[in-house]
Design goal:
three-stranded antiparallel β-sheet; 22% strand; single chain; alpha+beta; 3 strands; 83 residues
């Protein structure tokens, strides 16, 4: 999966990313680790890829990372921001 780059406009300032869905005209704010995940999703990634990167960059165990990442991805899917 990856972010629908053709349908969005995004700007990151510090650890906050503002995303505009061009197809729905809705704004979204992503903060913290979510900003890093959003950056990683610029390329095709699996959940396992994301878990590997996040557990190597942050002090978090794989089970917690996987659960949080799946929740985050669900929100991106609900907002129609993922392929």
């Amino acid at each position: 999966m990856r972010v629908r780059a053709s349908d969005i406009s995004a700007r990151t300032i510090g650890d906050e990313t503002i995303v505009l869905s061009l197809s729905t005209s809705k704004y979204f704010t992503i903060t913290g680790v979510g900003t890093r995940l959003f950056e990683l999703l610029a390329e095709e990634r699996s959940v396992e890829d994301l878990v590997g990167v996040i557990t190597s960059e942050y002090e978090i165990d794989a089970d917690t990372a996987r659960r949080d990442i799946e929740t985050f991805l669900g929100r991106l899917r609900d907002a129609q921001l993922l392929h």
